[in-house]
Amino acid sequence: MIQQFLDAFVTVQGWLLDTLVQPPLLALGLGSYIELAFDGVEIFMWGVLQLLVALLVLRPLETLRPLERWRDRKAVRVDLLYTLLDRLGVIPLAVFALIAPIFVELEGWLRFRGFIPPQIEDLLPALERAPLIAFFVYLVVLDFAEYWRHRLSHTFRWWWALHAIHHSQRQMSLWTDSRNHLLDDVIGGLWFAVVALLIGIPPGHFIGLMLVVKLVENLSHINARLSYGRVGEQLIVGPHYHRWHHSLALPPGPAFRHGCNFAVLFPVWDWLFGTLYLARDNPPTGIAPNTVPGTPDHDGFWRQQWDGLRGMWEALHAARKQRS
To answer: What Rg value do the Cα atoms of the chain yield, rounded?
Structure first.
């Protein structure tokens, strides 16, 4: 069944590329972008499938078992725009186009100096006969790196000014997952790509790993009373766990001065590094006024992007003044 689905997926991907994408690229003399376009079509198709799951499964769940009820959903609309840009490939392709040259140069620089990234299978040859276990191992390594990227985005004030856009939503829903500043997306994409390069993730695993991360992140932001069970909640980041990360008020204690529950997939990282916080209640989400310069609590997409850049500049300028 799975193989039949994948075969049909590849067939449709090839048809879309040959029929709709390749002809205008060739007509414009952009044949060198066909390989990028092929990846773009794949991202677009997976995005369409994710949107269908969100609309047919997750959105009804928010309606039937909402954690919060809002009379006015105006604040959610901009998150829907972010989701469409992200899932349909607009933002991922823009990020990829920006970081691909850096990625290629870095890989060439490393290989020229004799560094060929080792794959997990090279260190653990038995994994060559167990691709699913190898996939999980890559997922754990990437999630460890994502934990630190996420934690650092709360630690450095210039980075927090960008990431604050994601946290400024007080009506958190399944669409909030994609609500990010474009520059924050570029940094995150570069981080993900460099880690993947350094540990030698095979191309065949890369898209699948991204899809798993996006699915769990999507579920962790849902506005629904959804539980993974007593054991499941300890193994995978769920909505209640992640809601404390988006809490309007930080938990008490110096360990949480930058926040808590930074894990993206596996809560074990928060437990290991002292940033785990569990409580029964579900706190209100958002960020307090004046938390960052130019707090991006506006409803407009471009206003939020501008506020993020302004806040980053002010944070960098303040840090420069302190050093001088």
So the answer is: 21
Residue 94: both structure tokens together: 């823009």
CA separation for the pair 117, 113 (Å, rounded): 12
Joined tokens for residue 4: 């039949």
pTM confidence score: 0.86
- Phi, psi (deg, nearest 5) at residue 65: -130, 60
The dihedral over CA atoms of 282, 286, 292, 293, expressed in degrees to the nearest 10, equals: -170
Phi, psi of 155 (to 5 degrees): -90, -50
Distance CA 180, CA 262 (A): 16
Give the contacts of 127 (CB within 8 A, at least 6 positions apart). Answer: 120, 121, 133, 134, 137
Q: Which pLDDT tens digits describe the chain residue by residue (324 residues)?
A: 667 877 888 898 889 888 888 888 888 787 777 877 787 788 888 888 888 989 999 999 999 999 999 888 888 889 999 998 888 876 666 666 666 677 667 777 777 777 776 677 777 777 777 778 888 888 999 999 999 999 999 999 999 999 999 999 999 999 999 999 999 988 888 888 788 877 777 766 777 888 888 889 999 999 999 888 888 888 999 999 999 999 988 888 878 888 899 999 999 999 999 999 988 888 999 887 766 655 555 678 898 999 899 999 998 988 888 877
